[in-house]
């Protein structure tokens, strides 16, 4: 038996076990924590199957907590079904969509636009805001047109904004933002938030913290910032009491929770991944888009799914909120969750 077939046979056993442990439970009847666990099981199983398919994979997404694996041929479809998962035949491989997205990244100097991968529609979605100049809109639309039906262009009202404003949980003399996650590095405690916040410099305070200094700040490109925590370590949990014990990459269709000191708690759905978002300050790479409602002052606040941390808020518009992935932040700064 080949390694690929072995992996898929193993996943068939895992998927069957997941089904018996409640992965097919109705979203309407599952508690928020149970639904988060349901999603985590579904994402893990589907991602392993998709990876085993190699070039035949069109990526993974969630539909009401249930994983769907996109495939580009009948052989792959049968393999996914044999693993006990739902398969959907699509036109474009995930590798091809990633290639298109990466080629669009070569289009520079186009503020108020964004593009990322939507595995649910098997397309790269390009967003052009009406705050963009005509020259920018024309440039991005022309670039997108080169890739045919692998790209979908959406024209959005409003303007992309980075969410810094008064009324946030952590602040300095120039602005206020929200704490994302309590983290540690080398045993020392730190605060993780958005890089466009820490770019303001200065000394930060909020809650039980005072005198926090900026030690890392990356924006544009990434959107990560790290502050000292002079008052000692903080809890590894959201301010609702929900523990955060791990970090993971987001999946299209995944239901998430968020917290911010302006809008408080809330929920939403991941609509795109690996998105390049062209804010006025420059492009932020690898963002993920969500339907969660956020506003000025929520910047740096966390997105999470149950006990799994997903990212910190950058900003957005009235429809989409963008977060920078927590996995990339932990890796870049050598951090661990508190």
Automatic annotation (TrEMBL):
CDD domains assigned to the protein according to its UniProt record, in alphabetical order: alphaLP-like
Cellular component GO terms, alphabetical: extracellular region
Keyword Hydrolase: yes
UniProt keyword list: Disulfide bond, Hydrolase, Protease, Serine protease, Signal, Zymogen
GO biological process: proteolysis
Range of residues in the leader sequence: 1-30
InterPro entries: Pept_S1_alpha_lytic, Pept_S1A_streptogrisin, Peptidase_S1_PA, Peptidase_S1_PA_chymotrypsin, Streptogrisin_prodomain, TAT_signal
Record family assignment: Belongs to the peptidase S1 family.
A Pfam family hit: Pro_Al_protease
Peptidase S1A alpha-lytic prodomain domain location: 92-145
Protein's name in the database: Peptidase
PROSITE patterns xref list: TAT
Active site residues per record: 196, 223, 299
Keyword Plastid: no
Superkingdom of the source species: Bacteria
S-S bonds: 177-197
